[in-house]
Amino acid sequence: MDLTLMDMLFLYALISIWIMLLYHILLTFSGYKYHDEIYKDPGAVFSTLKEYPFVSILVPAHNEEKVIERSVKAIMNMDYPQDRFELIVINDCSSDRTGEILQELLQEYNNLKVITVLPPEGGRGKAAALNRGLEEARGEYIAVYDADNTPERMALRYLVAAIVQDPQLACVVGKFRTRNKDKNILTRFINIETLGFQWISQAGRWKLFNISTIPGTNYIIRKNVIDRLGGWNEKAITEDTELSVRVYELGYREDSEFSLQIYGLGYKIKFFPLAVTWEQEPETWKVWFKQRTRWVRGNIYVIGKYLFKLLSMKRKVVALDIFYFFSIYFLFLSSVIISDIIFIIVILDISHLTLQGPFFVLWILAYVLFVTEMAIAINLEKGEGNIKNILLIAIMYFTYCQMWIVLTLRSFLLSFKDKLLGIKTVKWYKTERF
Amino acid sequence: MEMRNTKRLIDGGIILTLTIFVIIVTVIFISYQQLPINTYILFALNTLLIALAYWLGLVRGLIAGMVAVFFYGTYLMYGAVTKGPMMEISYQQIVWLFLFPFSSYISGKLSETIKEAVERSEKYIKDMEELVLLDKETGFSNAKKFYLDLSEEISKSKRYGTPLSIMLIKIQYFDELRSIYGDTVCSNVIINISKKIAEHTRDIDKKARLEKDKFALILSNTDEKGALVLKERLTNFLENLEISDGKDRRQLKFSFKIGIAQLEDKEKDAIAFKERAERELEYDVG
């Protein structure tokens, strides 16, 4: 069989998408296994929790008057001994009533601390605010919540119980749910997307490789680890993803080089879905677009920072994981765009490409697998596996996912433009609250 | 217990329907040999997925469907690539890609719905048993209500200093009677006896049926002497009770044992109090 260069390219795209599909099947299956393991005996994790370590909870807040009061109250009402945690809210250059609300709350709670950062110094983003809070934190562990979060009462207790179990865990990440999921079709899409991300990507990767990513809220990290890392990276747009990679690169003993080489040990980040927080998701496409553009640009930053260091990275699995993200953004995205074009051509019957047959099958296969995998993911969550959500998944592929493509392309463009113009300022990319 | 049988019936029915379906399709395929064997294999796989999803539940069924779709899709693509550019994929082949997970979903959802319905019914039955305080046949209180009432009456009697007695009435040889005359007749007998008991006692006496052959009366404001008077009266009526057996109009005669106890000064416990009356039954040898 003679293959033209075009055929070779098609074949290459075909195989890379196929590998991606296979990987997602493995992830979905592993996510399901992890779900079963965790929910068999949810209380088991507490058997090793003999005493309560002191925890400092950091909440960065920048113009959060709409949500800050409820969030502080929810955190204060968590089922954890009142004298074993402190809440530090970093009020970073808020120009609204955030400061006043926090002053009122200070009267009510003894273990609430408010750090107010004023304009010339602050306003440099979430990572900077977290670092400011870290200076004042007394806890052996640091927990982070976003200002719009309503954690469930047991959330912190679960996080602590999970992290004390294993000294190799640098960080334990809880699950986040969508509080306003019934608001409109966008929040319903987001609800499904977050469940898919967490049960397939997070739970699956944890089960398969003991890897997961810090999502920016509802996580607990050892203070000595974050101290050794020098805090959050203030240059990174998504400080959480960036932090994940640096945690993995850190050995778990003081003599990290030694332990990594001899035992292959390193710190782990565990996904632990029993610790749940509910957060507010964007209710308009405009806000969604802005927020996600920030995420994608953050991921581009991380990929750009580590892509050429992949081979020299200490943890091969982590290098593979970054490579996977790179593949998603570069290889997979371009392949999806190609397959979209092919689909349109096939539908309109404009021309018959060589090797069109396999692509048509691949496209349908990708669609069917997407729907099935997401259906599995939402069925792992109580009350979400209803027919309405399944139908939403079926249309999500043509709507929500295509929006992702648009915004990823746009983010690349923006990042490229910044690179050309040499812009490096990081500021608050704050998501508007509702 | 009943619900579990219902579940087994539903499961059996579904398996049987599926089996019949498979047999018919198999026969058709054997009779018309020009039909492609590939289609039969796909049909068999799809049926297997339906059975798996029903048996293992929704999520595991979907996982099976996902794996099947992936392998089948890979097979199709491989075929299309190796057979060269002119290979056309037919829509009959594509349809299965949708059919596999869809079948898994429908079957898994069905299995889950049935399971939930059965569990819910079981829970209702259990809840109902806990809530029921009456005996269905006689309308008297059941054992649970009897103890609740007795505790209350003991408290009252202590507080107001009034006497309190209880009376147990046991039908002799009830099991033997039942094996001879059957459930319906015995049910009639019980209803008749309960009516007689209700007629010959005061409204304020609380009447209960503790076991199938044992009645209890809580006689408030009554001492042992008063209770003995009632016993005399009841014995008379009950011993002469004649109940006709539906078919041959034979008249049945019963013998009873009656035990009486009066609440003692320091007695507080309802169960112990009832036990004393129980012991009195043994001494009532007629």
Give a structural overview.
The complex is a heterodimer of chains A (434) and B (286). By secondary structure, chain A is of the alpha/beta class. Chain A has a domain at 42-287: Spore Coat Polysaccharide Biosynthesis Protein SpsA, Chain A (Alpha-Beta Complex), CATH 3.90.550. Chain A is 55% helix and 12% strand. Chain A has helices spanning 5-40, 68-76, 98-108, 126-136, 155-164, 185-209, 223-228, 239-249, 256-263, 285-306, 316-348, 356-379, 387-396, 400-421, and strands at 55-61, 85-92, 112-117, 141-144, 150-151, 169-178, 219-222, 268-279. In chain A, strands 3-2-1-4-7-6-8-5 form an eight-stranded mixed β-sheet, with helices on both faces. In chain A, helix 10 (285-306) crosses helix 11 (316-348) and helix 10 packs across helix 14 (400-421). The N and C termini of chain A lie far apart (60 Å). The model of chain A has no long low-confidence stretch (mean pLDDT 83). Chain B has two domains: 2-131, no CATH class; 143-283, 2-Layer Sandwich (Alpha-Beta Plaits), CATH 3.30.70.270. In chain B, 66% of the residues lie in helices and 11% in strands. Chain B has helices at residues 2-31, 37-56, 58-82, 91-131, 143-160, 174-199, 224-239, 270-283, and strands at 164-171, 206-211, 214-220, 243-244, 251-252, 256-262. Chain B has a four-stranded antiparallel β-sheet with strand order 2-3-1-6, sandwiched between helices. A two-stranded antiparallel ribbon of chain B has the order 4-5. In chain B, helix 1 packs antiparallel against helix 2. Chain B is elongated and about 105 Å long. The A-B interface holds A 1, 7, 11, 14, 18, 21-22, 25, 28-29, 32, 354-355, 357-358, 360-362, 364-365, 368-369, 371-373, 375-376, 379-380, 385, 390 and B 58-60, 62-63, 65-67, 69-70, 73-74, 76-77, 80-81, 84-85, 87-89, 94, 97-98, 100-101, 105.
